[in-house]
Amino acid sequence: MKLVTRAALGWPPSAADHASPSRGLAIHYDGSDQGLARKPHSACLAYWRKTRAFHMGPSRGWSDLGYSWGACPHGYILEGRGLGRYQAAQGTTAGNRDWYSVTLMSGPNEDPTPEQIDAVRQLRAWLMSKGLGAAVRGHRDFFGTSCPGDRLYRLVKTGTFSRSPKEADDDVSAKDVWTYEIPVPFGTKENPEWQAKSLLLNSNERIRNLERQVGELTALVRELVERKS
Predict the structure, then answer these.
(1) How far apart are CA 137 and CA 101, in angstroms?
(2) Which Pfam families match (predicted)?
(3) Of 13, 64, 193, 219, which residue is most buried, by most CB within 10 angstroms?
């Protein structure tokens, strides 16, 4: 897990009250699109610092950043309140006391990056090694809110975040299938293996050529038969 600690961010230990979250991990998002996937990682650090300043500012007045952790689009986990602290994220006493929180640094119209999803999975596995329960919930499961947005909540419900990093390594996407390289007898020394999509396109071209040749031969045979008759 690529962890950015509070110390690395220049922050002291969290002033939030102590707690022992044990139930599981709650998923959050930002209320607006951030576009951080298109920016360097330094923008994620700036976003995290800005979020803490906002949460501790006059509009909220919290003792610290509201979340336990943040997951950025580049695959880093940024420490918020960290281990063994009350949250200010889930909206209920039990939710803040019994569940850790992680916010994906994205908004309602942004899909999480594969690196971001993997970072959440690694965080969950690490927390489970410290005794956290396996459950994963969305913010809206605790409180009447749109958070974590329909896109992330769909991933919560389908178990995407609940898969272990090892299970995730076994995931095979459609792109993986089409780009998988296969040794072919007609390959060259420089290119002995072809991607599945290239094989399909090549086979389709060969079949079309054969169909054309068969059509031409059929027409020729028909013409010869008609001449003899």
Answers:
(1) 9
(2) Amidase_2
(3) 64
Report, as an integer, the average pLDDT of 192-219. Answer: 79
Cα 164 from Cα 124, distance rounded (Å)? 8
Q: 6 with 14: CB under 8 angstroms?
A: yes
| Percent of the chain scoring above 90 in pLDDT | 67
- The rounded distance, in Å, linking the Cα atoms of 91 and 221 is 81
pTM over 0.85: no
Tokens representing residue 149 in the block: 């947005």
Distance CA 57, CA 50 (A): 10
CA angle 51, 139, 54 (to 5 degrees): 15
Instruction: Please tell me which of 23-27, 172-176, 186-190, 217-221 the model is most confident about, judged by mean pLDDT.
Output: 23-27
Distance, in Å, from the CA atom of 161 to the CA atom of 119, rounded to the nearest integer, reads: 10
Positive or negative: CA dihedral 208, 209, 213, 216: positive
Number of other CB atoms surrounding residue 85 within 10 Å: 23
Domain ranges of the chain: 2-171, 179-228
What would the pLDDT profile of 102-120 be if each residue is shown by its tens digit? 999 999 999 999 999 999 9
Structure tokens that stand for 76 in this block? 């880093």
Contacts of residue 154, Cβ cutoff 8 Å, sequence gap at least 6: none
Structure tokens at 124: 């969950």
